[in-house]
Amino acid sequence: DTGVSQDPRHKITKRGQNVTFRCDPISEHNRLYWYRQTLGQGPEFLTYFQNEAQLEKSRLLSDRFSAERPKGSFSTLEIQRTEQGDSAMYLCASSRRGSGNTIYFGEGSWLTVV
Amino acid sequence: AQSVTQLDSQVPVFEEAPVELRCNYSSSVSVYLFWYVQYPNQGLQLLLKYLSGSTLVKGINGFEAEFNKSQTSFHLRKPSVHISDTAEYFCAVSGDNNNDMRFGAGTRLTVKP
């Protein structure tokens, strides 16, 4: 079991630049989630996919954010025209479909916007 | 909608002492409850979860939690902590769909020698 992997682990970017994060879920997990976590806070839900379909998006996900999961396997989260308030850790997670199934998290991608 | 309140932002304890991390939830529907641990610069690791059945749930690393429906609580306990238990602990609640999982703000457990 290879776990959820995220890339890059750390990214420093200038305000106004675009950044993209990649997530590879646990194989055979058809659900994939993105969360955002800021210092001193718990993870906040951003969006989730079931296979390739994006089924829900949080109001936190502004128009500058877009997530894709084109083939129902890996996913990307792109942030356009980054702002300092986007600085956070972006967590990807995956699970099997079904109530109460464990959500497994990756180690996160830290974004610092300067 | 579900929500979680972790009553203590920081809990300092001495090594080998018992510890309880408190969590209260609110929900209008049946819930599933979880505790996750996060070590510095890492993602979240599941400690234990309550889905149904016995209200006392045992997890990894010697932790356990008790679901109390009347008090809407799911407190995490360990009878004797180690230095290595120093970490951030998150309580989470979800309903029938995992997509609505909500986390508390976390409790920072610091174990001192």
Give a short overview.
Chain A is mainly β and 114 residues long. Chain A has strands at residues 5-7, 10-13, 19-24, 31-37, 44-50, 53-57, 65-68, 75-79, 88-95, 104-105, 109-113.
Question: What does this molecule look like?
Answer:
- The complex is a heterodimer of chains A (114) and B (113).
- With 114 residues, chain A is mainly beta.
- Chain A has no helices and eleven strands.
- In chain A, the strands form two sheets. In chain A, strands 2, 4, 5, 6, 9, 10 and 11 form a seven-stranded mixed sheet that branches. Chain A has a four-stranded antiparallel sheet with strand order 1-3-8-7, with no helix packed on it.
- In chain A, β9 (88-95) and β10 form a beta hairpin.
- The model of chain A has no long low-confidence stretch (mean pLDDT 92).
- Chain B is an all-beta fold and 113 residues long.
- Chain B contains no helices and twelve strands.
- Chain B is globular.
- Chain A binds chain B through residues 4, 31, 33, 40-45, 48, 55-56, 91, 93, 95, 98-108, 110, and chain B through 4, 9, 32, 36, 41-46, 49, 51, 90, 92, 94, 96-106.
Key terms:
heterodimer, A: 114 residues, mainly beta, four-stranded antiparallel sheet, 11 strands, B: 113 residues, six-stranded mixed sheet, 12 strands
Mean pLDDT of chain B: 91
Task: Give average pLDDT of chain A, whole number.
Answer: 92
- The rough form of chain B would be described as globular
Identify the overall geometry of chain A. globular
Order of helices and strands of chain B: EEEEEEEEEEEE
Secondary-structure class of chain A: mainly beta
The span between the termini of chain B is: 41 Å
Main sheet overview of chain B: 6 strands, mixed
Helix content estimate of chain B = under 10%
Q: In whole angstroms, how far apart are the ends of chain A?
A: 37 Å
- Please tally the helical runs of chain A, counting DSSP H or I stretches of 4 or more residues: 0
Q: How would you characterize the largest beta sheet of chain A?
A: 7 strands, mixed
Q: What helical percentage do the residues of chain A reach?
A: under 10%
**Helical segment count of chain B:** 0
Query: Which H/E pattern describes the elements of chain A?
Result: EEEEEEEEEEE
Number of strands of chain B: 12
* Rg result of chain A: 13 Å
